[in-house]
Design brief:
By secondary structure, the protein is an alpha+beta fold. It contains 4 helices and 9 strands, in the order H-H-E-E-H-E-E-E-E-E-E-H-E. The strands form 2 sheets. The protein has a 7-stranded mixed β-sheet with strand order 3-2-4-7-8-1-9. The protein has a two-stranded antiparallel sheet with strand order 5-6. Helix 1 crosses helix 3 and helix 3 crosses helix 4. The longest helix has 20 residues. The radius of gyration is 21 Å and the shape is globular.
């Protein structure tokens, strides 16, 4: 997990609210979910459960609190309610997220068929030979960001893992708190159904 990118992505929400256009938009995510949620069990109450690494410092705790805030609405839409007392919650919820930045280059693809840049010759304006070739940046070939979230639901009393869901997508920005929240929505959109094969889920989000 790139901790600085996650923290920056969530902190960017206020800037996005000022500079972005208001209104709903569709977020598409690749989702996979696992587990065996009991057919006769209601969602019930929940409390967040942080791993030691998610609370080892003030920065880690702040980052995790931001993730929890982003996931609350998705949990409520799935039928869960926040427990007044964490020790009496029906389930414990563990969250994870990452934002990975990468700079694609054409030679990553053996056939170069997906690259958006162009090779050109300063003299002839096109790739006329190995001599004098250069790289011209294409706006569609900029840095990309892979954004992903994970949710784990465990029975509080027994500690048994009941449901696990992952959602991810990519784009040309780190995203915002709204986008991270939409990924949590996508991860839990099909709860309690299980489909471990990665598949596309569309949800609505607000800019």
């Amino acid at each position: 997990m790139n901790r600085r990118l996650i923290l920056t992505a969530l902190a960017a929400a206020s800037a996005a609210a000022v500079t972005g256009c208001a209104g709903p938009y569709t977020v598409s995510a690749d989702v996979s979910n696992y587990g065996a949620w009991p057919a006769d069990r209601k969602p019930g109450s929940y409390a967040f459960d942080r791993l030691p690494s998610q609370q080892q410092s003030d920065e880690a705790a702040q980052r995790q609190a931001a993730l929890e805030d982003a996931a609350r609405a998705a949990l409520e839409r799935a039928g869960f309610t926040a427990a007044a007392d964490a020790k009496a919650a029906d389930v414990l919820v563990t969250l994870g997220a990452r934002v990975t930045a990468y700079d694609p280059v054409p030679w990553n693809d053996p056939l170069w068929w997906r690259w958006r840049g162009r090779l050109f010759s300063p003299r002839y304006g096109y790739a006329a030979g190995w001599s004098g070739w250069g790289w011209r940046q294409d706006p569609f070939f900029d840095r990309r960001y892979d954004r992903a979230v994970a949710v784990l639901l465990r029975d509080r009393a027994s500690g048994e893992a009941l449901y696990e869901a992952h959602a991810s997508n990519e784009g040309m920005t780190m995203g915002s708190e709204s986008l991270i929240g939409a990924l949590f929505d996508a991860a839990l959109a099909e709860f309690p159904k299980v489909n471990p094969t990665s598949h596309r889920v569309n949800v609505q989000a607000l800019r």
